[in-house]
Automatic annotation (TrEMBL):
SUPFAM superfamilies: Cytochrome P450 (SSF48264)
Listed GO MF terms: heme binding; iron ion binding; monooxygenase activity; oxidoreductase activity, acting on paired donors, with incorporation or reduction of molecular oxygen
Family: Belongs to the cytochrome P450 family.
Membrane topology, as annotated: Peripheral membrane protein
Localisation per UniProt entry: Endoplasmic reticulum membrane; Microsome membrane
TM region(s), chain numbering: 6-26
Name under which the protein is recorded: Probable cytochrome P450 6a23 isoform X1
Residue numbers binding heme: 457
Source species, domain of life: Eukaryota
Amino acid sequence: MSPFTTYQYIITTFFLILTLTLVLLYKKWFSYWKDKGLNYIEPTIPFGNASRFFLGQCSWANLFRDLYLEVRKKGWKHAGVYFCGKPVYMPVDNEIIKRILVSDFIHFANHGVFVDKSSDPLSTHIFNMEGYRWKNIRSKLPIAFTAAKMRRNVIIMNEISKEFIKELDKEVNSNNSINIKDLLSRFTIDVVSSCSMGMKSNTLKHENETLVEQSTSFFEDQWSRTSNILVTLIPRKILVMLHFKLFNKRASNFFLNMFKQIKDHRLTETVKRNDLTDLLLDLCDGTKEHKDYAGDGTMEPLSFDEFAAQMYVFFEAAFETSSSTQTFALYELGANKEVQDRLRNEIEEVLKKHNGQVTYEAVCEMEYLERVIDETLRKYPVFPSLARICTKDYVVPGTDVTIEKDSFVMITNLGIHYDPEYYPDPMKFDPERFTAENKAKRPYCSYVPFGEGPRICLGKRFGLWQIKIGLISILRNYEVSLSDKMQLPLAFKKTGLILRAEGSVWLHLEKIN
Ligand code: HEM
C-alpha cells in the first residue's frame, strides 16, 4: 500500500467515525422530548427545528412564531422543539403560558442571558440579573415611572418634539423620502437622555453623533444573531472560562465613561432631580440602609459597574423599542389612510378642548390613539420573544410532563399575536380589535407585547408615553404616505433578536397648514 493511500484511509476512517459519533449523539439529543412523552416537531440533523434560522432564511422571531403556529395547527397544548441539539419547551396553550409567566413564575424567574461581571461589566443589568439580586433591584425601580413623574416627563417630551418637528421640516423641504427610523431614534435618544439622565444629548441637532453610533451596539452585539446562538447553545461556565464578551470594547468604554461623568456631575449638584439617575445613585450610597425586597433584610449597595449597567439598559431599552414601534405605526398609517384620518381627527378634536396643548390629561382622552398603538404592538411586538429558564423542576399541570431545571422555555409573543384564534386575519392592521368589547373576548395573556408577570417590562408606561407624543407631533403636522422608495411588503430583518424592518421605512410627509 502506498503512503498516500494509507493517509486517505486514515482520513476516511476518521470522518466515518466522526459522522457516526455525531449521528449517534444527535439521535440521543433528539430523543429527549420523545422520552419525556411530549409531542415534538420532527427535527433534522444538524440544526434541529432551526434550519431556516441557521441558513439565514428567517429571523429568530419568525422561527419561533412559525413553530408556535405549527404546534397550534396540530391542536397540541405544548410541544418540544430543538434549537440545534438543544431541547426547547414551547407552550402554546393560554393557561400554560399564564402559569409560566405569572402564577408559577417561581419556577421560571430568569431570562437565562449570559452575565460575566469581570469581563463584561455592562452585562449586569436588570434584564440579565437573576434571583435575590434581581428581586431587590426590581423592587426599587418602579417609582421611577409613577404617574407624577410621567407628568413631568410629558413636559420634557413636548419640548423635544418641537425640535423634532423643526428637523422634520428641514428634511421634508429638501427630500421627497424620509428615512423615518433615523429621526425617530434621535427623538427617543434625546427624550430618554433628558428624562432619565438630565442630559441634553441634542442628537436631533446632530451634536452627538458618537452617542447615536454607539447606541446601536447593544442590539447589534449583545442581541445579535451570533451572540444569541452562542449564549443559547454553550453552557455559561464555558463562556466564562473563555472570557466571552457580549459587548464590544469601544461601546462598553464609551458608556462606562459617559455614566461616570453623569455620576460625578450629579454628586456636585445640590438640587435633587428625582429621576432614574438619582434613584440609582441613591442605591449606590453605602452610608444608607436599603431594605431588601421582602423588607426584612438589607440590600447591598450597587457598585459603579452595576449603576452603569442599569443606566445602560434603561437607555437602550427605551430608545430602540419606542422608535421602532413609532416607525411600524407610521408605516401602517401610511398604508391605511382611513385609520390615519380617523386618528388625526381624534387628536384635533381632543386638543381643541385643551387649547391646542398636548397635556397629560389631553393624551389620556385619546382612545383611538391607544387602539392604534395596541394594534401596532400586536402586529409588531418589537421585543418578540419571552424566553425563560426553568429554575426548578416543574410538572406541567394536568400532564405527566416534567420540565427539568435549566431547560430553555420559549414563549413567543409574536406567535401569540399572529394566532388566528385570537386575531382572525392576523396580517390585517385593524385597531378595532382593541375596543373594550373585543379585548374582553380574548383570554388573559393573548396580548403580551410587554411580557407579563413579575418580569413584565419596567418601562412600559414611559415607552407608551414617548410613542404617543412622537405620533401626535407627526400627525398634527403632516399627512403621511409610503414613499415610492419603500420596499413592499415590509419584512423583518433576519439578524438580531428584536423586530426591525429590513431596509429602511421610507415615508413621504406633506405639511398640513
Ligand atoms: C414599545 C416599547 C417597549 C416594549 C414593546 C418593551 C418590551 C419588553 C419586553 C417584552 C420585556 C421582557 C418581558 C418578559 O420577559 O416578560 C421587557 C423588559 C424590560 N424592559 Fe421593556 N419594552 C419597551 C420599552 C421599554 C422602555 C421605554 C424601558 C425603559 C424606560 C424598558 C425597560 C425594560 C427593562 C428594564 C426590562 C427588564 C425587566 C426585568 O427583567 O425585570 N422597556 N420589555
